[in-house]
Amino acid sequence: MSAAVSSGGTPPGSPESRRIVLLRHAKADWPEVSDHERPLAERGRKDAPVAGRRLAETGIDFDLAMCSTATRTRETWKLAVHELPHRPKTVYEERLYEASLGDLLALLGETPDEVNDLLVIGHNPGIHALADALAGSTEGDALARMTRDGFPTSAFAVVSFSGPWKSVEHGVGRLLDYWTPHD
Questions:
Q1: Measuring CA to CA, which residue among 102, 93, 127 is closest to residue 20?
Q2: Model pTM?
Q3: Alpha carbons within 13 A on the beta-carbon side of 135
Q4: What is d(CA 104, CA 57) in angstroms, rounded to the nearest whole number?
Q5: What is the mean pLDDT of each run of 10 residues along the chain (183 residues)?
Q6: Residues in a beta bridge with 90
Q7: What is the SS3 assignment for 12?
Q8: CA-to-CA distance for 122 and 67, rounded, in angstroms?
């Protein structure tokens, strides 16, 4: 992964360049609670801040973070956000939990156009399916690594696209980066 993902110098609010970072929650435990209430495992509590540091290294200044309401995603975000240079506005979105690819595309389409850089903290299989679906092209071997590794816990993908959020659909993006905590 490159140390920084270039912003391209596009002025804020411009529809020419947008980025979506798709972060899968950190490793969760399996106690006797509902799936929605599963907390992070010890490994997850270690990996989430590492993912936050790697997110900070991308140089992306997120305008908005959209996080699933599940306990493991909220805990992942709480540990990762402390590693970022500034905390973006955060929206906890119930529809991210158990979201299908279609659900995720619909949610992206609702994103306000003043948002250029969006972070989504969610779950598999939806997060992986979305990264794969958006990636019409790729930088280097990012797509090959994502295909090989799947989308393990704490992994993230950076996808860029042009145009309004309501135009997000299959193949519109460029997979700029893919990172996993245990490469």
A1: 127
A2: 0.91
A3: 25
A4: 26
A5: 40 66 98 97 98 97 98 98 97 97 96 97 97 94 92 97 94 96 81
A6: 65
A7: coil
A8: 6
Q: At CA 97, angle to CA 31 and CA 116, rounded to 5?
A: 130
> What are the helix and strand counts (H, E) for the chain?
5, 7
CA-wise closest residue to 19 among 51, 55, 52, 54 = 55
Query: DSSP assignment of 98-163, as one string?
Result: T--HHHHHHHHHTS-TT--EEEEEE-TTHHHHHHHHHEEEESTTHHHHHHHH---TT-EEEEEE-S
In contact, 44 and 28? CB cutoff 8 Å: yes
Do the Cβ atoms of 76 and 121 come closer than 8 Å?
Answer: yes
Length of the chain: 183
3-state helix, strand, coil split of the chain in percent (to 5) is 35, 25, 45
Q: Tell me if 25 sits within 8 A of 125, measured CB to CB.
A: no
- pLDDT of 182: 83
Q: And the tokens for 157?
A: 């993908």
